[in-house]
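Re: weekly structure request thread

Next one in the queue (156 aa):
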Amino acid sequence: MKRMKYIFFVSVSCILLSACSLKEDVAELYKKESPMEAEIIIPDTFVNNEKEIIKAVLTQNGEKVEGADYVHFEIWKQDGTLHYYMEPAKEMGNGIYALSKDFDSNGLYYIKVHASKNGSIIMPQKQFVVGDLSKEELEYLQKDIPTNEGVHEHHH
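Done, posted below.
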């Protein structure tokens, strides 16, 4: 009798488990993520103490991102002597977000764009030059050292 119960239990279990086979299109049932992207546009040249416009063009799924939750620009000098904390960018329309900034010292700088829309968060970074580079900054670029040596704090 025990053996019959065991065979019955195993048979029923096999039938139930076989009903749980994977569908071929199961991957289509999950949400496909399409991350937001940003193109950082920096003027070709910066002149000391003159305001220049730095832009970020946000896209997602090939379309311009309007009404982002936030877009902040963070700028710092490579040698750590200067750090502008995050400043909100102004929405210009057509997915363009901009910040007007003047720089009072030459050197190698980095900009990081902090942007979010509907839970998609990105933080692309780009380097740029204001005026002329010092000998140390030229050597730094030739060594290919990681790009984030300056003081770095995150505030949103």
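DSSP finds two helices and ten strands in the chain. The beta strands are 37-41, 52-60, 63-64, 70-77, 83-88, 90-93, 96-101, 107-117, 120-122, 125-130.
Next request, please.
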